[in-house]
């Protein structure tokens, strides 16, 4: 059993479809009104049906007052990290400290290549992600100038700035041992999805992060664990994990906090069904918060 003792947080995962702008904005306003913590928006610039994620995040921040927003996760091969750091700091300042940054090493390489991006090998992608973390930290440092010599990225006396309004969480959407080790050393959070990393896989992945964190002199509990979860909140009997009535969702999510080490849940509903998101925000989320607090004593 693993419980890092962090307060649970909750968010939503709206699909950035270009023909559903009004529906997306209605959903995020509901998230804001109902007290959700986060809105995570997937970043696939090569997907013709999708809006540009960074443009959409700016509008979401402008249309909300309290919810925090992050790319879930940013497509590093198509977004140079120094420029992305500037954009992140800008959104954070404009929104009064409501932006977080999650990075992915890349996927769907032929699509990335078709858009003019690099088609990296696994080793190159891992190095690029590690270097990007360094570059982004330097761009947020407030130093007079910054230099960096990497195999994928370089800085040659750039003037960093502006600094973000708050210490932006730098999260990684990774799963391999090498990248989990990097995360444990230098990142603020981990962003897996239940479809790729189901609950039985979590203990071994946490162990790798924690081992690396301790070796770097860090407290593993300082690392946020954000889980993208998908399913259906129904009025009938269970039909599997995260497919069933509210009580099942409350029990399973509470177990993921107290036994499986996750502390933040970002919910994606089939078709972005607003009724599912309303049930999530109004019925599931408060009950999980209460159950976790009660069982922690």
Automatic annotation (TrEMBL):
Its EC number is 1.-.-.-. GO terms for molecular function: oxidoreductase activity. Keywords: Oxidoreductase. The keyword Oxidoreductase applies. This is LLM class flavin-dependent oxidoreductase. It is an enzyme of class 1 (oxidoreductase). It holds the Pfam family Bac_luciferase. Residues 11-236 form the Luciferase-like domain. It comes from Rhodococcus daqingensis. It comes from the Bacteria. InterPro entries: F420-G6PD/mer, Luciferase-like_dom, Luciferase-like_sf.
